[in-house]
Amino acid sequence: MDAALVVRSVWEGMEARNWGAVRRLVADDVVVTWPQTRERIRGADTFVEVNRTYPGDWHITVEEVLAEGERAAARVTIVLGKDVFYASGFYRVRNGQIVEATEMFGDPGEPPYDRSHLTERD
């Protein structure tokens, strides 16, 4: 399985709450880093449990996955009730499993300063 399909399948497995499938696609010794909250998750079982126990009825849409060789990048949208979050992740995949990941999560918000004369907004 190529890197893009592995990464897409993990996100889609989380949306489906198919934790067994997610676990099979993550290496036993995976290291996942979340720089935004300065957290590191070690091990596939811990990674699955962190996501399985995340509160609320959240839903994931995979917007895009790009890959070259063992490296992949993903962009997803996460909806929790009326809240929308965005995630970007960078992954290393070996032998059909994620072995390393860095994921960043962001909330939509207002620009930090007025730059409306230079930008467009949805």
UniProtKB/TrEMBL annotation:
Name all SnoaL-like domain ranges: 7-100
Q: Which domain of life is it from?
A: Bacteria
Short name of one Pfam family: SnoaL_2
Recorded protein name is Nuclear transport factor 2 family protein
